[in-house]
Specification:
The complex is a heterodimer of chains A (141) and B (505).
Chain A (H helix, E strand, L loop, with lengths): L1 E7 L8 H9 L4 E8 L2 E8 L4 H10 L3 E3 L2 E5 L19 E3 L5 E3 L21 E5 L11
Antiparallel strand pairs in A: 1-3, 1-4, 2-3, 5-8, 6-7
Helix pairs in contact in A: 1-2
Chain B lengths: L1 H7 L6 H10 L4 E3 H11 L1 H7 L2 E3 L2 E4 L4 E5 L11 E4 L2 E3 L7 E5 L13 H9 L4 E6 L10 E6 L7 E8 L6 E3 L6 E3 L2 E3 L5 E4 L18 E2 L2 E4 L2 E8 L12 E6 L8 E6 L3 E9 L1 E3 L3 H6 L8 E6 L9 E6 H6 L1 E4 L2 E7 L3 H16 L10 E2 L18 H4 L5 E2 L5 H11 L3 E5 L5 E6 H9 L22 H11 L3 E5 L5 E6 H9 L1
Parallel strand pairs in B: 1-2, 11-22, 14-25, 27-28
Antiparallel strand pairs in B: 2-21, 3-20, 4-7, 4-10, 5-6, 5-8, 8-9, 10-18, 12-13, 15-26, 16-17, 16-20, 17-18, 19-20, 22-23, 24-25, 28-29, 30-31
The chains are: A alpha+beta (141), B alpha+beta (505).
Chain lengths: 141, 505
C-alpha cells in the first residue's frame, strides 16, 4: 500500500471525484484522514502499489493535486528518548520499547496532515520529511 | 574504638572502608535497579552484607541550571554591562568578565528555539560561540564594546552551577481545558486526552536516600558525564513533601553532550536536560532497605495545568509504576501518559557511575553537612492585590437561538453592548454573536440567528486571573469572553474594555 495526499480546490470539493475514481478504475481507496471545508480539502488516502500510477493520473485529470505526504522522521542523534511525543500521536505510531527507547512505526503515521508530535519534542528531533517515491516527484501540476 | 567494634560486628560500613575496597578492586556496586531485585530475592540482610554502593540516576529538564564562565580580560579591558552569547543574553553578576549563562534565557533572534541550554551544550561539544558585550566605560575599563569568537578552551572557568536540580519526585500534569496548552510539562491535549510526568521514580537519587543520610554538601556525584559535587540543598527544597532538590556544581570542560542537552518546550521556552547520578553508600541495613524502594511505593499527584493558578486542582494520586506503564486512570477515564525525562538515559547514568566506581576512577566522599530535612517551601508574599475574572465580570446580555436577528439588533442598541451570549433554557452556553455579525446579517438580509452564531466560543472561568483572560482575547483576536462555570452555565461576561479600564486605573 502507498499513501498519497490529495488536495481539492474550492470548485472540486463539490464533486464526488474520489467515488468516481473508485468506480471507474475499480480500486480500493482507503481514506486515512480528511479535512474538507467549503473552501477546499485535503485527504490522505491509501491505495495498492500496483494502482498508484493510474490513480494518480485519474485524480490529476480531474483537477486534484496529488503529492506524497510528508511523514515524520525522528533523528536518533538528537532524540534522547524522553517520550514526550508518545501520547501526542493520535494513531499510536510512536511507542516506547522495553528498554525505554523510542520506536516509530511508519506504517501507522499519518504524516503531514497531523504532525502533532513535531512541536512536542523538547530535543527538536522530529521533522516532517517527504516520503521517498520518485514516481511522484514531478508535481508541478 | 566504638566504631571499630561495630564494624567488626558488620552492621555498619564506613565511606573509608568502601574507598579502600575501590582501591583494591573489591568493591561491590549495584545499580538501584539491580539492588531492588537483590533485596526482593535475598532480603535486606544479605543485600547489606553484599553491597557497598548503590548507584542512581536521572535525566530530565532542569530549568534552574546554568554555567558560570570567565572569559578573561580584553585589551583595552572592558567591564561588561550587557552581554550575549549566540544572541542569548547572559547575566553579568560579578566584576568585569564573569558571566552566567542561564538555561532558560532565550536567543533574541531565535526565541523559543535556541537558548542558554543550547549555548552550554554547544560549548561542551567544542563548538565556537560568538560573544558580544557592551559597557559604559570607566577610567580603568575604557572599552565600551567587544565582539569575539570563543570555544571552551578559551574560557578560564566553565562550571555548571545549577541552583535547583534533581527533584525527588514531580507532579503528573493533565489539562482539563477545551484547548491544547503548551507548558513546562510539555504539550497537554484538551479534555485530559494525555498526561505527562517527570522524574525517574525508583532510580531517582533522593528517593533512594529519602532522609538524606548520605547526600549533602560535598557529596561527589555524576554530573553531565563528569564528576561533580552537591553544594547544598536546591532552591524550593521541600523535604517534608518528599520533594527535595539539589544544588550542584561541576566542570563543564569535562562533561559530555550525551548527558547535558539544550531543549525546547514549545511556547514555554528553552531549558537544559541534565544528567545526575548519586552513589548511595550502603552504610547500614536501613540504607539497604531504603535503596530497595519500588516505583509502586512512590506516589505523586495528578494536577490540572489547565488552571493557571499557584494551587492547581489535584485530580488524583498515581504511582510511578502506573506512570511508567504508559497509562493512568483518573475516575473512570484511562489517560495515556508520557515521560518528559529519559528513563533510558537515567539507567545509563546509574550504569556509568557503577563502572566508574568499579574501575577505580570514582571515590566516594562523606558529606560535610546533610541536606536540611525540615525546610518549608513558602509561597510568595504578595503586597499588591491580584485581580481575577470574578472581580471584573458583569452580567451578560443574552438571547436564545430561536430569536430573530431584528430583536437581537434592538437589544444591542438598547443595552448598548457589542456581544450577545446565546444560551439554552437552562442558561448553558450555546454560542455568541457580535454587533458586527448582526450588521453583516442585516446587510445580507438573513433572518435566522442560528445561521450566524459562533459556536466555538472561547471562554474563561471566574477564578482565572485577569491576565489569562486578556491573553486569551489577544491570542484569538477577540474582544469579549463569556464567563462560565464547570457545567458551562453562563455567569457573566468580561470584555477588553473591562481589562483596559482596570489597566488605566
Amino acid at each position: 500500500m502507498v499513501r498519497i495526499l490529495l488536495k481539492f480546490s474550492e470548485k472540486l470539493v463539490q464533486q464526488p471525484i474520489t467515488a468516481e475514481i473508485i468506480l471507474e478504475h475499480k480500486v480500493p481507496i482507503n481514506i486515512i484522514t480528511a479535512h474538507v471545508t467549503s473552501k477546499g480539502g485535503e485527504v490522505l488516502a491509501e491505495i495498492p502499489d500496483a494502482a498508484l500510477e493510474k490513480v494518480v493520473k485519474a485524480f490529476r485529470q480531474k483537477g486534484a493535486t496529488v503529492t506524497l505526504p510528508k511523514l515524520i522522521e525522528i533523528d536518533s542523534e538528537k532524540c534522547f528518548s524522553c517520550g514526550a511525543c508518545i501520547t501526542i500521536c493520535p494513531v499510536e505510531a510512536i511507542t516506547l520499547t522495553e528498554d525505554f527507547s523510542i520506536s516509530f512505526n511508519k506504517e501507522k503515521c499519518v504524516g503531514s496532515t497531523c504532525s502533532a508530535c513535531v512541536d512536542a519534542c523538547p530535543a527538536r528531533a522530529i521533522k516532517s520529511v517527504k516520503q521517498n517515491n520518485s514516481e511522484l516527484t514531478d508535481n508541478t501540476h | 574504638m566504638e566504631a571499630l567494634k561495630l564494624n567488626s560486628k558488620k552492621n555498619k560500613r564506613t565511606i573509608e572502608e568502601i574507598n579502600e575496597k575501590i582501591r583494591t578492586g573489591d568493591v561491590q556496586v549495584l545499580t538501584a535497579e539491580e539492588m531492588k531485585k537483590l533485596v526482593e530475592s535475598s532480603g535486606v540482610e544479605v543485600a547489606f552484607k553484599e553491597v557497598d554502593v548503590v548507584t542512581t540516576g536521572t535525566f530530565g529538564a532542569m530549568c534552574s541550571s546554568g554555567a558560570i564562565i570567565n572569559v578573561g580580560h580584553s585589551d583595552p579591558p572592558i567591564k561588561i554591562q550587557k552581554a550575549w552569547i549566540n544572541d542569548v543574553e547572559v547575566c553579568h553578576p560579578g566584576a568585569a568578565v564573569d558571566l552566567y549563562i542561564g538555561a532558560t534565557a532565550m536567543s533574541e533572534t531565535q526565541p523559543f528555539e535556541y537558548g542558554g541550554g543550547h549555548v552550554i551544550e554547544d560549548l561542551i561539544r567544542g563548538k565556537e560561540v560568538e560573544l558580544k558585550a557592551t559597557a559604559y566605560g570607566t577610567d580603568c575599563y575604557p572599552r565600551t564594546r567587544i565582539k569575539t569568537n570563543l570555544t571552551k578552551d578559551d574560557l578560564n572557568q566553565f562550571y555548571l552551577l545549577n541552583f535547583r536540580n534533581c527533584y525527588q519526585r514531580y507532579a503528573c500534569a493533565v489539562n482539563s481545558r477545551d484547548e491544547t496548552i503548551y507548558t513546562y510539562m510539555g504539550k497537554l491535549l484538551p479534555r485530559r486526552r494525555n498526561a505527562t510526568f517527570s522524574g525517574a521514580g525508583e532510580l531517582n537519587p533522593l528517593m533512594n536516600d529519602p532522609d538524606y543520610e548520605t547526600i549533602g554538601i560535598g557529596t561527589r556525584i555524576f554530573l553531565g558525564g563528569a564528576q561533580g559535587y552537591v553544594i547544598g540543598e536546591g532552591t524550593q527544597h521541600d523535604p517534608q513533601n518528599l520533594s527535595g532538590t539539589l544544588m550542584v556544581r561541576g566542570n563543564c570542560k569535562e562533561m559530555s553532550p550525551d548527558f547535558l542537552q539544550g531543549a525546547v518546550f514549545t511556547r514555554y521556552g528553552t531549558t537544559l536536560y541534565v544528567g545526575i547520578g548519586v552513589p548511595i553508600p550502603i552504610l547500614n541495613e536501613g540504607l539497604a532497605k531504603k535503596t530497595a524502594i519500588r516505583d509502586e511505593e512512590i506516589f505523586t499527584s495528578v494536577v490540572d495545568y489547565g488552571v493557571p493558578r499557584r494551587d492547581r486542582p489535584i485530580l488524583g494520586r498515581v504511582s510511578y509504576k502506573e506512570l511508567k506503564s504508559g497509562a493512568i486512570t483518573i475516575g473512570d477515564k484511562r489517560i495515556r501518559v508520557s515521560s518528559l525525562s529519559s528513563l533510558k538515559t537515567a539507567k545509563k547514568i546509574a550504569g556509568t557511575l557503577k563502572s566508574w566506581i568499579n574501575n577505580g576512577s570514582f571515590y566516594l566522599t562523606a558529606s560535610v553537612e546533610r541536606l536540611p530535612i525540615d525546610r518549608v517551601f513558602k509561597p510568595m508574599k504578595q503586597t499588591e492585590e491580584t485581580t481575577f475574572v470574578a472581580n471584573v465580570m458583569h452580567a451578560a446580555v443574552t438571547c436564545e437561538e430561536n430569536e430573530e436577528i431584528r430583536d437581537i439588533a434592538e437589544r444591542i442598541v438598547t443595552r448598548s453592548v457589542n456581544h450577545i451570549v446565546v444560551v439554552d433554557d437552562s442558561r448553558r452556553l450555546c454560542g455568541i454573536v457580535t454587533s458586527w455579525d448582526i450588521t453583516r446579517a442585516m446587510a445580507e438580509g438573513r433572518k435566522a440567528l442560528s445561521d450566524i452564531v459562533t459556536r466555538r466560543v472561547i471562554t474563561v472561568k471566574p477564578d482565572e486571573p485577569l491576565e489569562t483572560a486578556s491573553r486569551k482575547m489577544a491570542q484569538h483576536n477577540i474582544s469579549a469572553l463569556p464567563v462560565i462555570d464547570s457545567e458551562r452555565k453562563v455567569l457573566g461576561i468580561v470584555t477588553s474594555e473591562d481589562v483596559s479600564k482596570l489597566l488605566g486605573r
